[in-house]
Amino acid sequence: ETATVTDEAPDVPSGLAELAKRHLVMNFTPASKYRDDELPVFVRGEHCSVFDENGRRFFDGLAGLFCVQLGYTHGAEVGDAVRNQLAALPYQTTWSVAHPPAALLAAKIAELAPGDLNRVFFASGGGESNEAAIKLARQYHQTRGEGTRHKFIARRVAYHGTSFGAMSLNGMTAVRSMFEPLMSGVRHTHNTKRYRRPEGETPEQTTAFLLGELESLIVQEGPETIAAIIMEPLQNAGGSLTPPTPEYFTGVRALCDKYGILMIADEVITGFGRLGEWFGSIHYGFQPDMIVFAKGIASAYMPLGGIIASDAIIETILDGPVGMFNHALTYSGHPAACAAALKNLEIMEREGVVENVAELSPYLGEKLGEVAKKHAKIVGDLRGDGFHRSFELVTDHAGKRWAAEPIDAGDFVGEHLNPALAEAGLICRVAIDAEGNPLVQVSPPLVMTRGDIDELADLLNRAFGLATASAGL
Ligand code: PMP
Protein backbone atom coordinates (compact mmCIF):
# COMPACT_ATOMS: atom_id res chain seq x y z
CA GLU A 1 0.00 0.00 0.00
CA THR A 2 1.07 3.55 -0.63
CA ALA A 3 2.22 5.26 2.54
CA THR A 4 -0.09 7.90 3.87
CA VAL A 5 1.18 11.43 3.91
CA THR A 6 -0.02 14.37 5.93
CA ASP A 7 -0.16 17.92 4.76
CA GLU A 8 0.97 19.45 8.02
CA ALA A 9 3.34 22.28 7.11
CA PRO A 10 6.18 23.35 9.37
CA ASP A 11 6.49 26.99 10.25
CA VAL A 12 9.17 28.40 7.96
CA PRO A 13 9.90 32.03 7.15
CA SER A 14 8.95 33.32 3.71
CA GLY A 15 11.45 34.52 1.11
CA LEU A 16 13.80 31.55 1.51
CA ALA A 17 14.34 31.07 -2.21
CA GLU A 18 15.41 34.70 -2.56
CA LEU A 19 17.81 34.39 0.40
CA ALA A 20 19.32 31.25 -1.10
CA LYS A 21 19.68 32.80 -4.55
CA ARG A 22 21.39 35.82 -3.03
CA HIS A 23 23.69 34.15 -0.49
CA LEU A 24 23.95 30.41 -0.96
CA VAL A 25 26.54 29.09 -3.39
CA MET A 26 24.94 25.88 -4.55
CA ASN A 27 26.53 22.62 -5.75
CA PHE A 28 26.82 22.18 -9.53
CA THR A 29 23.97 24.70 -9.94
CA PRO A 30 23.66 26.73 -13.13
CA ALA A 31 23.32 30.53 -13.09
CA SER A 32 19.71 30.30 -14.30
CA LYS A 33 18.75 28.83 -10.92
CA TYR A 34 20.17 31.89 -9.15
CA ARG A 35 18.52 34.28 -11.59
CA ASP A 36 15.49 33.36 -13.63
CA ASP A 37 14.32 29.91 -12.61
CA GLU A 38 12.20 28.91 -9.72
CA LEU A 39 14.31 27.48 -6.88
CA PRO A 40 12.51 24.74 -4.96
CA VAL A 41 12.75 25.00 -1.18
CA PHE A 42 12.05 21.72 0.57
CA VAL A 43 11.00 21.97 4.18
CA ARG A 44 9.85 18.53 5.25
CA GLY A 45 10.06 14.86 4.35
CA GLU A 46 7.98 11.79 5.05
CA HIS A 47 8.57 8.21 3.90
CA CYS A 48 9.56 8.54 0.19
CA SER A 49 8.31 12.09 -0.27
CA VAL A 50 9.51 15.62 0.36
CA PHE A 51 7.34 18.72 0.62
CA ASP A 52 8.15 22.21 -0.54
CA GLU A 53 7.38 25.41 1.33
CA ASN A 54 3.96 25.59 -0.33
CA GLY A 55 3.07 22.12 0.94
CA ARG A 56 3.43 20.50 -2.47
CA ARG A 57 4.51 16.88 -2.38
CA PHE A 58 7.28 15.43 -4.55
CA PHE A 59 8.09 11.74 -4.79
CA ASP A 60 11.80 11.48 -4.07
CA GLY A 61 12.93 8.98 -6.67
CA LEU A 62 16.55 9.81 -5.94
CA ALA A 63 16.66 9.22 -2.16
CA GLY A 64 18.10 12.68 -1.63
CA LEU A 65 21.30 12.06 -3.54
CA PHE A 66 21.37 8.24 -3.46
CA CYS A 67 21.66 8.44 0.31
CA VAL A 68 18.46 8.44 2.38
CA GLN A 69 18.12 4.65 2.63
CA LEU A 70 15.39 5.03 5.26
CA GLY A 71 13.55 7.79 3.45
CA TYR A 72 12.34 10.54 5.75
CA THR A 73 10.51 8.66 8.47
CA HIS A 74 12.95 7.91 11.27
CA GLY A 75 14.30 11.36 12.09
CA ALA A 76 12.92 11.40 15.63
CA GLU A 77 14.45 8.05 16.58
CA VAL A 78 17.83 8.82 15.02
CA GLY A 79 17.59 12.29 16.52
CA ASP A 80 17.23 10.83 20.03
CA ALA A 81 20.39 8.78 19.52
CA VAL A 82 22.26 11.86 18.30
CA ARG A 83 20.95 14.03 21.14
CA ASN A 84 21.93 11.44 23.76
CA GLN A 85 25.42 11.25 22.30
CA LEU A 86 25.77 15.03 22.18
CA ALA A 87 24.72 15.23 25.83
CA ALA A 88 27.17 12.48 26.86
CA LEU A 89 30.19 13.42 24.75
CA PRO A 90 29.76 15.74 21.76
CA TYR A 91 33.30 15.44 20.51
CA GLN A 92 36.53 13.56 20.87
CA THR A 93 39.18 12.78 18.32
CA THR A 94 40.12 9.32 17.17
CA TRP A 95 43.82 10.23 17.35
CA SER A 96 45.30 7.68 19.77
CA VAL A 97 41.99 7.59 21.68
CA ALA A 98 38.60 6.03 21.02
CA HIS A 99 35.03 6.62 22.12
CA PRO A 100 31.97 4.36 22.21
CA PRO A 101 30.18 5.27 18.94
CA ALA A 102 33.33 5.06 16.79
CA ALA A 103 34.45 1.75 18.32
CA LEU A 104 30.98 0.19 18.12
CA LEU A 105 30.34 1.40 14.59
CA ALA A 106 33.72 0.22 13.28
CA ALA A 107 33.04 -3.22 14.75
CA LYS A 108 29.53 -3.28 13.27
CA ILE A 109 30.82 -2.33 9.81
CA ALA A 110 33.51 -5.03 10.04
CA GLU A 111 30.75 -7.54 10.82
CA LEU A 112 28.75 -6.52 7.74
CA ALA A 113 31.69 -6.17 5.33
CA PRO A 114 32.88 -9.15 3.26
CA GLY A 115 35.88 -11.34 4.14
CA ASP A 116 38.83 -9.83 5.97
CA LEU A 117 37.69 -6.20 5.60
CA ASN A 118 37.83 -5.47 9.31
CA ARG A 119 39.53 -2.07 9.67
CA VAL A 120 37.59 1.17 9.38
CA PHE A 121 38.86 4.71 8.94
CA PHE A 122 36.12 7.37 9.12
CA ALA A 123 35.74 10.52 7.03
CA SER A 124 32.76 12.80 6.47
CA GLY A 125 31.78 12.09 2.86
CA GLY A 126 32.57 10.11 -0.26
CA GLY A 127 35.28 12.29 -1.78
CA GLU A 128 37.15 12.53 1.51
CA SER A 129 36.92 8.76 1.80
CA ASN A 130 38.41 8.28 -1.65
CA GLU A 131 41.30 10.55 -0.61
CA ALA A 132 41.91 8.23 2.33
CA ALA A 133 41.80 5.20 0.03
CA ILE A 134 44.32 6.76 -2.35
CA LYS A 135 46.70 7.54 0.51
CA LEU A 136 46.30 4.16 2.17
CA ALA A 137 47.02 2.38 -1.12
CA ARG A 138 50.17 4.40 -1.76
CA GLN A 139 51.38 4.05 1.80
CA TYR A 140 50.78 0.29 1.72
CA HIS A 141 52.97 -0.13 -1.36
CA GLN A 142 55.65 2.22 0.02
CA THR A 143 55.75 0.20 3.22
CA ARG A 144 56.30 -2.98 1.26
CA GLY A 145 59.20 -1.44 -0.63
CA GLU A 146 57.16 -0.96 -3.80
CA GLY A 147 57.13 2.82 -3.88
CA THR A 148 57.00 2.79 -7.68
CA ARG A 149 53.34 1.81 -7.43
CA HIS A 150 51.73 5.23 -7.51
CA LYS A 151 49.20 4.99 -10.35
CA PHE A 152 45.49 4.37 -10.19
CA ILE A 153 43.21 2.86 -12.79
CA ALA A 154 39.59 4.03 -12.74
CA ARG A 155 36.84 3.74 -15.34
CA ARG A 156 35.62 6.07 -18.03
CA VAL A 157 32.72 8.36 -17.16
CA ALA A 158 32.92 7.33 -13.46
CA TYR A 159 32.54 9.89 -10.66
CA HIS A 160 34.47 9.65 -7.39
CA GLY A 161 34.26 13.15 -5.89
CA THR A 162 35.47 16.73 -6.20
CA SER A 163 38.53 16.99 -3.96
CA PHE A 164 41.79 16.82 -5.86
CA GLY A 165 42.65 13.16 -5.48
CA ALA A 166 39.08 11.94 -5.90
CA MET A 167 38.51 14.36 -8.79
CA SER A 168 41.60 13.00 -10.51
CA LEU A 169 40.01 9.56 -10.50
CA ASN A 170 36.94 10.86 -12.30
CA GLY A 171 36.43 9.57 -15.80
CA MET A 172 34.40 12.59 -16.87
CA THR A 173 36.16 15.63 -18.23
CA ALA A 174 33.50 18.25 -17.46
CA VAL A 175 34.17 18.24 -13.71
CA ARG A 176 37.95 18.07 -13.96
CA SER A 177 39.45 19.74 -17.02
CA MET A 178 39.39 23.35 -15.74
CA PHE A 179 41.23 22.32 -12.56
CA GLU A 180 44.16 20.62 -14.21
CA PRO A 181 46.92 19.76 -13.52
CA LEU A 182 45.49 17.14 -11.20
CA MET A 183 47.03 14.23 -9.31
CA SER A 184 49.19 12.52 -11.89
CA GLY A 185 49.22 8.85 -12.73
CA VAL A 186 45.50 8.16 -13.20
CA ARG A 187 44.50 6.02 -16.19
CA HIS A 188 41.01 5.12 -17.31
CA THR A 189 39.77 1.84 -18.65
CA HIS A 190 36.45 1.04 -20.34
CA ASN A 191 33.34 0.95 -18.20
CA THR A 192 30.80 -1.85 -18.53
CA LYS A 193 28.22 -0.13 -20.69
CA ARG A 194 26.90 -2.69 -23.17
CA TYR A 195 24.31 -0.59 -24.97
CA ARG A 196 26.76 0.61 -27.59
CA ARG A 197 28.82 -2.56 -27.87
CA PRO A 198 28.63 -4.28 -31.27
CA GLU A 199 25.29 -5.84 -32.17
CA GLY A 200 25.09 -9.49 -31.17
CA GLU A 201 28.02 -9.43 -28.72
CA THR A 202 27.20 -11.70 -25.78
CA PRO A 203 27.73 -10.63 -22.14
CA GLU A 204 30.54 -13.22 -21.95
CA GLN A 205 32.24 -11.64 -24.93
CA THR A 206 31.89 -8.17 -23.38
CA THR A 207 33.50 -9.43 -20.19
CA ALA A 208 36.36 -11.01 -22.13
CA PHE A 209 36.86 -7.79 -24.09
CA LEU A 210 36.87 -5.59 -20.96
CA LEU A 211 39.27 -7.84 -19.05
CA GLY A 212 41.55 -8.02 -22.08
CA GLU A 213 41.59 -4.24 -22.35
CA LEU A 214 42.31 -3.87 -18.65
CA GLU A 215 45.18 -6.33 -18.71
CA SER A 216 46.64 -4.68 -21.75
CA LEU A 217 46.51 -1.29 -19.98
CA ILE A 218 48.21 -2.76 -16.90
CA VAL A 219 50.97 -4.32 -18.97
CA GLN A 220 51.44 -1.20 -21.08
CA GLU A 221 51.72 1.05 -18.00
CA GLY A 222 53.99 -1.41 -16.20
CA PRO A 223 52.34 -3.39 -13.40
CA GLU A 224 55.06 -2.25 -10.99
CA THR A 225 53.76 1.34 -11.35
CA ILE A 226 50.15 0.62 -10.44
CA ALA A 227 48.88 1.01 -6.88
CA ALA A 228 45.20 0.24 -7.24
CA ILE A 229 42.19 -0.21 -9.46
CA ILE A 230 39.06 1.58 -8.28
CA MET A 231 35.58 0.67 -9.50
CA GLU A 232 32.01 0.97 -8.32
CA PRO A 233 30.19 -2.39 -8.25
CA LEU A 234 27.42 -0.64 -10.19
CA GLN A 235 28.72 2.52 -11.86
CA ASN A 236 26.37 5.42 -11.26
CA ALA A 237 27.65 7.97 -13.76
CA GLY A 238 26.98 6.74 -17.27
CA GLY A 239 23.73 5.30 -15.97
CA SER A 240 23.56 2.24 -13.69
CA LEU A 241 26.33 0.27 -15.37
CA THR A 242 26.31 -3.33 -14.17
CA PRO A 243 28.94 -6.01 -14.76
CA PRO A 244 28.18 -7.92 -17.99
CA THR A 245 28.65 -11.27 -16.22
CA PRO A 246 29.71 -12.35 -12.69
CA GLU A 247 33.14 -13.17 -14.15
CA TYR A 248 33.84 -9.48 -14.75
CA PHE A 249 34.65 -8.55 -11.15
CA THR A 250 36.24 -11.89 -10.28
CA GLY A 251 38.35 -11.38 -13.40
CA VAL A 252 39.43 -7.91 -12.25
CA ARG A 253 40.25 -9.44 -8.85
CA ALA A 254 42.39 -12.09 -10.56
CA LEU A 255 44.29 -9.44 -12.54
CA CYS A 256 44.91 -7.49 -9.32
CA ASP A 257 46.30 -10.62 -7.68
CA LYS A 258 48.41 -11.50 -10.72
CA TYR A 259 50.03 -8.06 -10.84
CA GLY A 260 50.17 -7.10 -7.13
CA ILE A 261 47.56 -4.35 -7.47
CA LEU A 262 45.03 -3.40 -4.78
CA MET A 263 41.33 -3.55 -5.67
CA ILE A 264 39.20 -0.73 -4.28
CA ALA A 265 35.41 -0.84 -4.46
CA ASP A 266 33.87 2.63 -4.36
CA GLU A 267 30.62 1.70 -2.62
CA VAL A 268 29.55 5.26 -1.79
CA ILE A 269 26.28 4.49 -3.60
CA THR A 270 26.14 0.69 -3.64
CA GLY A 271 27.05 0.25 0.03
CA PHE A 272 24.43 -0.30 2.72
CA GLY A 273 21.74 -2.00 0.79
CA ARG A 274 21.13 -0.39 -2.57
CA LEU A 275 21.64 -3.62 -4.51
CA GLY A 276 19.87 -5.87 -2.00
CA GLU A 277 22.97 -6.84 -0.01
CA TRP A 278 24.89 -4.82 2.54
CA PHE A 279 27.58 -4.24 -0.07
CA GLY A 280 27.61 -4.39 -3.86
CA SER A 281 30.78 -6.48 -3.74
CA ILE A 282 28.85 -9.15 -1.82
CA HIS A 283 26.01 -8.90 -4.34
CA TYR A 284 28.38 -9.43 -7.27
CA GLY A 285 30.55 -11.97 -5.44
CA PHE A 286 34.00 -10.40 -5.32
CA GLN A 287 36.41 -9.54 -2.55
CA PRO A 288 38.03 -6.08 -2.72
CA ASP A 289 40.99 -5.01 -0.58
CA MET A 290 39.19 -1.83 0.40
CA ILE A 291 35.63 -0.58 0.34
CA VAL A 292 34.91 3.16 0.23
CA PHE A 293 31.57 4.11 1.80
CA ALA A 294 29.51 7.21 2.70
CA LYS A 295 25.87 8.18 2.06
CA GLY A 296 23.80 5.15 3.16
CA ILE A 297 25.91 4.33 6.24
CA ALA A 298 23.92 6.96 8.15
CA SER A 299 21.01 7.32 5.69
CA ALA A 300 22.43 10.86 5.47
CA TYR A 301 20.99 11.73 8.89
CA MET A 302 24.52 12.96 9.55
CA PRO A 303 27.51 13.38 7.22
CA LEU A 304 29.68 10.26 7.44
CA GLY A 305 31.90 8.20 5.19
CA GLY A 306 35.04 6.14 5.38
CA ILE A 307 37.02 3.18 4.14
CA ILE A 308 37.05 -0.45 5.21
CA ALA A 309 40.47 -1.98 4.67
CA SER A 310 41.66 -5.55 4.94
CA ASP A 311 43.51 -6.72 8.04
CA ALA A 312 46.53 -7.39 5.80
CA ILE A 313 46.78 -3.77 4.62
CA ILE A 314 46.52 -2.26 8.10
CA GLU A 315 48.83 -4.84 9.71
CA THR A 316 51.44 -4.18 7.02
CA ILE A 317 51.33 -0.46 7.75
CA LEU A 318 51.43 -0.90 11.52
CA ASP A 319 54.47 -3.18 11.12
CA GLY A 320 56.18 -0.72 8.78
CA PRO A 321 58.74 2.02 9.47
CA VAL A 322 56.14 4.77 9.99
CA GLY A 323 54.00 2.47 12.13
CA MET A 324 50.73 4.33 11.55
CA PHE A 325 48.34 5.32 8.79
CA ASN A 326 49.82 8.71 7.94
CA HIS A 327 46.47 10.49 7.59
CA ALA A 328 44.02 12.35 9.83
CA LEU A 329 40.84 14.40 9.89
CA THR A 330 39.51 16.42 12.83
CA TYR A 331 36.06 14.93 12.36
CA SER A 332 37.14 11.35 11.69
CA GLY A 333 34.68 9.25 13.67
CA HIS A 334 32.67 12.21 14.95
CA PRO A 335 30.60 10.86 17.88
CA ALA A 336 27.26 12.31 16.75
CA ALA A 337 27.69 11.06 13.17
CA CYS A 338 28.70 7.59 14.38
CA ALA A 339 25.74 7.51 16.80
CA ALA A 340 23.40 8.36 13.91
CA ALA A 341 24.94 5.61 11.79
CA LEU A 342 24.64 3.02 14.56
CA LYS A 343 20.97 3.86 14.98
CA ASN A 344 20.45 3.86 11.21
CA LEU A 345 21.96 0.37 10.88
CA GLU A 346 19.88 -0.84 13.83
CA ILE A 347 16.69 0.41 12.15
CA MET A 348 17.72 -1.02 8.77
CA GLU A 349 18.22 -4.44 10.37
CA ARG A 350 15.06 -4.23 12.46
CA GLU A 351 12.91 -3.27 9.47
CA GLY A 352 14.55 -5.64 7.00
CA VAL A 353 15.40 -2.81 4.64
CA VAL A 354 18.11 -4.65 2.72
CA GLU A 355 15.80 -7.67 2.33
CA ASN A 356 13.11 -5.29 1.05
CA VAL A 357 15.38 -4.23 -1.79
CA ALA A 358 16.20 -7.84 -2.69
CA GLU A 359 12.51 -8.74 -2.64
CA LEU A 360 11.14 -5.78 -4.58
CA SER A 361 13.96 -5.28 -7.04
CA PRO A 362 12.39 -7.60 -9.68
CA TYR A 363 9.07 -5.78 -9.34
CA LEU A 364 10.80 -2.42 -9.79
CA GLY A 365 12.51 -3.79 -12.90
CA GLU A 366 9.17 -5.03 -14.25
CA LYS A 367 7.32 -1.75 -13.67
CA LEU A 368 10.12 0.36 -15.13
CA GLY A 369 10.26 -2.05 -18.06
CA GLU A 370 6.60 -1.22 -18.75
CA VAL A 371 7.47 2.48 -18.68
CA ALA A 372 10.32 1.92 -21.13
CA LYS A 373 8.02 -0.01 -23.47
CA LYS A 374 5.29 2.58 -23.32
CA HIS A 375 7.76 5.35 -24.13
CA ALA A 376 9.88 3.38 -26.60
CA LYS A 377 9.91 6.47 -28.80
CA ILE A 378 12.44 8.09 -26.45
CA VAL A 379 13.76 5.25 -24.27
CA GLY A 380 16.69 3.46 -25.87
CA ASP A 381 17.85 1.41 -22.92
CA LEU A 382 16.76 0.62 -19.38
CA ARG A 383 19.45 -0.85 -17.17
CA GLY A 384 20.56 -1.24 -13.59
CA ASP A 385 20.08 -3.46 -10.59
CA GLY A 386 18.52 -3.33 -7.14
CA PHE A 387 17.11 0.11 -6.39
CA HIS A 388 19.36 1.84 -8.93
CA ARG A 389 18.06 2.06 -12.50
CA SER A 390 18.64 4.31 -15.49
CA PHE A 391 16.87 5.07 -18.73
CA GLU A 392 19.06 6.14 -21.60
CA LEU A 393 17.13 8.33 -23.99
CA VAL A 394 17.46 8.25 -27.76
CA THR A 395 15.31 9.16 -30.72
CA ASP A 396 17.45 7.46 -33.33
CA HIS A 397 17.20 3.84 -32.21
CA ALA A 398 19.22 2.41 -35.06
CA GLY A 399 22.11 4.75 -34.33
CA LYS A 400 21.48 4.51 -30.56
CA ARG A 401 21.76 8.23 -30.25
CA TRP A 402 19.76 11.32 -29.63
CA ALA A 403 19.05 12.62 -33.12
CA ALA A 404 20.38 16.09 -33.82
CA GLU A 405 16.98 16.87 -35.38
CA PRO A 406 14.38 18.01 -34.53
CA ILE A 407 15.78 19.08 -31.13
CA ASP A 408 18.97 18.30 -29.33
CA ALA A 409 19.26 16.36 -26.10
CA GLY A 410 20.13 19.39 -23.99
CA ASP A 411 17.04 21.24 -25.18
CA PHE A 412 14.86 18.23 -24.56
CA VAL A 413 16.15 17.81 -21.03
CA GLY A 414 16.16 21.48 -20.11
CA GLU A 415 13.07 22.70 -21.92
CA HIS A 416 10.80 19.69 -21.78
CA LEU A 417 11.84 16.88 -19.46
CA ASN A 418 12.82 18.82 -16.35
CA PRO A 419 9.60 20.90 -16.40
CA ALA A 420 7.57 17.72 -17.01
CA LEU A 421 9.13 16.02 -13.99
CA ALA A 422 8.43 19.09 -11.87
CA GLU A 423 4.83 19.10 -13.04
CA ALA A 424 4.46 15.39 -12.31
CA GLY A 425 5.97 15.95 -8.85
CA LEU A 426 8.83 13.51 -9.30
CA ILE A 427 12.45 14.01 -8.31
CA CYS A 428 14.92 11.92 -10.23
CA ARG A 429 18.29 12.58 -11.75
CA VAL A 430 18.33 13.87 -15.28
CA ALA A 431 21.76 14.23 -16.76
CA ILE A 432 23.60 14.36 -20.02
CA ASP A 433 26.44 11.96 -19.35
CA ALA A 434 30.09 12.53 -20.25
CA GLU A 435 29.49 11.04 -23.69
CA GLY A 436 26.49 13.25 -24.42
CA ASN A 437 23.75 10.75 -23.69
CA PRO A 438 20.62 11.90 -21.85
CA LEU A 439 19.96 9.75 -18.80
CA VAL A 440 17.09 9.57 -16.34
CA GLN A 441 18.11 7.86 -13.13
CA VAL A 442 16.01 6.53 -10.31
CA SER A 443 17.53 5.47 -7.04
CA PRO A 444 14.71 5.67 -4.49
CA PRO A 445 14.74 5.20 -0.71
CA LEU A 446 15.25 1.56 0.22
CA VAL A 447 12.04 1.50 2.27
CA MET A 448 9.95 1.86 -0.89
CA THR A 449 6.89 -0.44 -1.00
CA ARG A 450 5.13 -2.06 -3.95
CA GLY A 451 2.63 0.79 -3.86
CA ASP A 452 5.45 3.30 -4.00
CA ILE A 453 6.90 1.50 -7.02
CA ASP A 454 3.51 1.75 -8.74
CA GLU A 455 3.42 5.45 -7.96
CA LEU A 456 6.99 5.96 -9.20
CA ALA A 457 6.12 4.22 -12.49
CA ASP A 458 2.94 6.30 -12.88
CA LEU A 459 4.85 9.52 -12.31
CA LEU A 460 7.53 8.52 -14.82
CA ASN A 461 4.85 7.70 -17.38
CA ARG A 462 3.25 11.05 -16.78
CA ALA A 463 6.55 12.96 -17.03
CA PHE A 464 7.73 11.15 -20.17
CA GLY A 465 4.30 11.72 -21.71
CA LEU A 466 4.28 15.44 -20.91
CA ALA A 467 7.86 15.88 -22.14
CA THR A 468 7.36 14.12 -25.48
CA ALA A 469 4.10 16.00 -26.07
CA SER A 470 5.64 19.36 -25.30
CA ALA A 471 8.67 18.60 -27.49
CA GLY A 472 6.34 17.50 -30.29
CA LEU A 473 8.00 14.09 -30.58
N1 PMP B 1 31.94 8.20 -5.05
C1 PMP B 1 30.77 7.98 -5.66
C2 PMP B 1 30.54 6.68 -6.35
C3 PMP B 1 29.77 8.97 -5.62
O1 PMP B 1 28.60 8.76 -6.24
C4 PMP B 1 30.02 10.17 -4.94
C5 PMP B 1 28.99 11.28 -4.85
N2 PMP B 1 27.78 11.10 -5.44
C6 PMP B 1 31.27 10.35 -4.35
C7 PMP B 1 32.20 9.35 -4.42
C8 PMP B 1 31.61 11.63 -3.66
O2 PMP B 1 30.94 11.72 -2.45
P1 PMP B 1 30.80 13.14 -1.71
O3 PMP B 1 29.91 13.98 -2.57
O4 PMP B 1 30.17 12.77 -0.40
O5 PMP B 1 32.16 13.69 -1.56
Write a structural description:
This protein is an alpha/beta fold and 473 residues long. The chain folds into two domains: 151 residues, Aspartate Aminotransferase, domain 1, CATH 3.90.1150.10; 274 residues, 3-Layer(aba) Sandwich (Aspartate Aminotransferase, domain 2), CATH 3.40.640. Strand 14 and strand 15 form a beta hairpin.
Q: What is CATH's topology name of the largest domain? A: Aspartate Aminotransferase, domain 2
CATH class of the largest domain: Alpha Beta
Radius of gyration: 22 Å
Number of H- or I-type helical stretches: 15
Computed structural class = alpha/beta
Question: What is the CATH architecture annotation of the largest domain?
Answer: 3-Layer(aba) Sandwich
Which term fits the overall shape? globular
What keyword list fits this structure?
473 residues; alpha/beta; Aspartate Aminotransferase, domain 1; Aspartate Aminotransferase, domain 2; seven-stranded mixed beta sheet; four-stranded mixed beta sheet; disordered N terminus; binds 4'-deoxy-4'-aminopyridoxal-5'-phosphate
Give a short overview.
With 473 residues, this protein is an alpha/beta fold.
Write the layout of secondary structure elements.
Layout: H1 16-23, H2 31-34, E1 42-46, E2 49-52, E3 57-60, H3 63-66, H4 75-88, H5 100-112, E4 117-123, H6 126-143, E5 151-155, H7 164-169, E6 186-189, H8 203-221, E7 226-231, H9 247-259, E8 262-266, H10 280-283, E9 290-293, E10 305-310, H11 311-319, H12 335-350, H13 353-374, E11 379-385, E12 388-393, H14 409-424, E13 426-427, E14 429-432, E15 438-442, H15 450-471
Parallel strand pairs: 3-13, 5-6, 5-7, 7-8, 8-9
Antiparallel strand pairs: 1-2, 2-3, 4-10, 9-10, 11-12, 12-15, 14-15
Helix pairs in contact: 4-12, 5-12, 6-11, 8-9, 13-15, 14-15
Bound molecules: 4'-deoxy-4'-aminopyridoxal-5'-phosphate.
